[in-house]
Amino acid sequence: MEACRAAGVPCQVVPGISAGMAAAAAAGAPLTHRGLAQAVTFVTGHAASGGEPELDWAALARANQTVVVYMGLSTAPMIAARLMRAGRQGSTPVAVIEGASLDTERRLVTTLSGLAEAVQGLDGPAILIIGEVASLATSLQPAHPGEGRDPGQHPRLPSNDADALGTLAQLPVPTCPGSRPSPGRAERKSASRGARR
Q1: Coil, strand, or helix at residue 179?
Q2: How confident is the model over 2-27, as pLDDT tens digits?
Q3: pLDDT, mean of residues 41-46
Q4: What one-character DSSP code corresponds to residue 53?
Q5: Which of 9, 17, 31, 125 shows the shortest CA–CA distance to 76?
Q6: Is the terminal CB of the chain with fewer CB neighbours within 10 Å at N or C?
Q7: CA 123 to chain centre
Q8: Measured in Å, how far apart are the chain's first and last C-alpha atoms?
Q9: Do 41 and 66 form a contact (C-beta atoms < 8 A)?
């Protein structure tokens, strides 16, 4: 954004869901699941210079918390080694989510001590979820070209807008006790016609 602004190009940020939170939710791993994690920390796997990030490894190694690492695929072996050296158990679960939400998405669940070997062969952008909640993540391999995924394995809205609207129309609308749904457009029109008579 700074480069766009410096060049006189108007731009703005449209708030959305963080990739780390979205990837975890899609994998079925709530980042602060009761009894497994009381905190979550988001970090980058790379320093601005491209080297090792300057992180508080001792704080990140504390138990009962989740660490989400952005851009940590190529530095995963170093991250695992630093966390274990700082006291995190090698048996700590780790979920690796490559290409989150894409048709080529891959998920694997491993441990901190097995992370370096597990990421070999992965090359896309990936999120690392480190901590006990990662054990709740489901594994997922990409569909073969031309084949769809089992919808129960990786639910998502249909790609066709009309199908998506049909799916959304079938979802129940939550209500609060004592509340009533606001009238729809047709009901408002009917009511205004009745008031004019």
Answers
A1: coil
A2: 899 899 999 888 888 889 999 999 89
A3: 94
A4: -
A5: 125
A6: C
A7: 18
A8: 56
A9: yes
| Mean predicted lDDT score pLDDT of the chain | 79
In the chain, the amino acid numbered 22 is A
Rounded alpha-carbon distances, angstroms, from residue 78 to 46, 52, 84: 11, 8, 10
Q: Residue 101: what are its φ and ψ, rounded to 5°?
A: 75, 0
Which of 52, 49, 107, 50 is CA-nearest to residue 83? 52
- Only one residue has tokens 């769809």, namely 148
Coil/strand/helix, residue 188: helix
Quick one: tokens of 41?
Answer: 């920390």
Domains of the chain: 11-136 (3.30.950.10)
CB 113 within 8 A of CB 91: yes
Token pair 């954004």 is found at 1
Lowest mean pLDDT among 31-35, 84-88, 160-164: 160-164
Distance separating alpha carbons of residues 53 and 30, to the nearest angstrom:
26
Gap between the Cα atoms of 121 and 100, Å rounded: 17
